[in-house]
Design goal:
Blueprint lengths: L2 H15 L2 H20 L9 H24 L3 H15 L8 H15 L7 H9 L8 H12 L1
Length: 150
């Protein structure tokens, strides 16, 4: 079962179970997928699992940013709602790598690329991110590479 079919199946289950949060998130995902299809000039088509993963990562990042902003503004009620939505989104994302795992990947990439200065930071980040879409937190990765190459 691909991700599109899983979303559709979960959407129907959430609707029948009257799970408002899950239903709202899945509706939002379906809408985001349609917007992405229109942006790619493929209305009525479908997205590959990699393209869907891009949509999921973008939506999760938006939720994370909203949580931070609501928290800073003292709106914990809205931040809690975003956290609940983010928890549902995490079910569709691959398991994130820990900072320790990211550090190991960074060390490996630095050795493979013979990186030695901050100018090589982009190359190292690209090498680590390749093939690990949705698994690597960009902020942690950038901080790790910067600390290692500085």
């Amino acid at each position: 079962m691909n991700l599109t079919e899983k979303i559709e199946k979960d959407y129907i289950s959430a609707y029948k179970a009257k799970d408002a949060v899950r239903l709202a998130v899945l509706r939002l995902l379906k809408t985001a997928v349609k917007h992405r299809l229109v942006a790619l000039c493929r209305p009525g088509g479908s997205l590959s699992d990699d393209e869907l993963l891009d949509v999921f990562v973008k939506e999760a990042k938006q939720r994370q940013d909203s949580i931070e902003q609501y928290g800073a503004a003292g709106r914990e009620d809205l931040a809690d709602r975003e956290r609940a939505e983010l928890a549902v989104l995490h079910e569709y994302l691959p398991k994130p790598l820990t900072p320790e795992e990211i550090a190991v990947l960074v060390e490996t990439a630095i050795k493979e690329l013979s990186a030695c200065s901050a100018k090589d930071m982009g190359k190292v980040i690209s090498a680590v991110m390749a093939g690990r879409k949705g698994c690597v937190d960009g902020k942690i990765l950038a901080e790790t590479v910067k600390a290692r190459l500085a």
